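Data deposition worksheet. Section B asks for the primary sequence of the deposited chain exactly as it was used as input, without tags or linkers unless they were present during the calculation. Section C holds the resulting structure in token form. Section D is free text for depositor observations; keep each observation to a single sentence. Incomplete worksheets are returned to the depositor.
Section A, Depositor: J.P.
Section B:
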Amino acid sequence: MANPHFLFIEVVGEHADQVHLLEAIAQLTERSGGSCFAYAAAGRVTGLEPGTIAAGMLIVKFADPAQLLRVAKEAVLPHLTAALPPGTIPLVLAVEGLPENGLPDMLDIPTIASVPRPRAHPRNTFLVVRGSVSDPERLNAYRDVILPMHKERGGYYEVFALLPEQVTALSGAWTEQIFAISRWPQRQAAEDFWFCDRYQRQAIPLRLGAGHFTVHLLEAAQG
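Section C:
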């Protein structure tokens, strides 16, 4: 069975009705068999990493990757084209997620195989990480520090895509090496991970100059 896939939409810049646009797409995808994890207009998405650009975002999970592609091409992309100002090109990605049972053979990586799944709640929070690596050895040392920190706070990965074929750009361009989505029980846990002394003083220096990344934080969809 194929791994679940995620539809990710990013709309950069101001849009007069961004909230209702993303809400409409969330409802559209859920009627078509998707499960909307989160959506938020730019003003409600927090950029954590310096240089992260403000943007509205939406994350929807599909069990069937073929269904995701069909819904995106037949409904989502036409809706975006009609609703956004002429010339606006949103980033729309289809991204392979981790298996439904996580990674039971790699328990050092925080997935649902090694971290209890939190109760679904509007306060569940997602970190969306994208970037490219120039020094893999330093990034490995960085991960050795942060992965236990995820587990300590109940955070785990829904998506950890490292291979080019795991990310498909349906609109816009994908030029990075890494796409990851982590889920946290609540916003406080995600922010405590990011702003704690261990992350700021020990983890960040390990990756400075070893790559470039953007990190967005958004909370789960209401409902």
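Section D:
The beta strands are 5-12, 35-40, 46-47, 55-62, 91-96, 125-133, 156-161, 167-171, 178-184, 211-219.
The CA atoms of residues 70 and 220 lie 24 Å apart.
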